[in-house]
Amino acid sequence: MLLSLLGVYSYNHSSFYYTEIEYILSNNVSDAKTYIDADSNVHITCNYKGQNIKLDSSDTKKVKIDANYLCVVNLTVNNQKIEINGPAQVYVNGDNNVISNKFDLSRPLSHPLVIINGHKNTFNIKWSETSDSSYTVISAFVNDADFKHTDPGDTNFDLATSKDSGLVGDIGPFYSVNISQIYPSSDYVIYYHGIPIGGTTHTTDPVTIAIIVSVVVTIVILAIIATVIVIICCVCKKRDKDGFQGIKADQ
User: Fold this and answer.
1) 98 and 161 together in one domain
2) Which of 28, 55, 234, 239 holds its CA 20 to 30 A away from the CA of 94?
3) Total count of domains within the chain
């Protein structure tokens, strides 16, 4: 896939990103089959710039990708467990694959971009930590009618979708990239994160809030009832005492 460098976006890192991608794609492709171990697992590491790696195999059980630098990994696999860590750009072509990523909210410019083309693939994202800045991450391009992904649920950030080919967001170690030249086609749904300052998974569940409110209200009501009982008891004792003293006076 040749990428044109037409259009330099002076306000962001688009030109730097596309230059790096063209450089990677111009390099010789390494075949990851050489990394298959005795247990039919593959561990791919991107420890230096410019790595262009492919794996065309359905004989493996698990593929793990650890990237310290932006690299391109092309996977043609089915029924695989694929773990991605770091700013790799990973193409997944195949069916019934389960892709996982640990998304550290406190580390912008360290997340992968996954391009998925196939059927019944799943993207499981596990979010952690808290962000110190606001940023947008382009996380996936997906052409899969049966695609499933984890839902961040009741958090203060979004995993949103779009088909806007002019969307701007961070890709790997590059911020504010205009995706127009890397977006495959309108057949693909764009998944992106909108992370605010203080973005975190540690938000309070509405049910928990309701329970807390109920407990507080109950405590207040019990305190009021206890106060009323104490006042009534004090008044009754005072009346009994006054009545007893009145009887003694009459005698």
Assistant:
1) yes
2) 28
3) 2
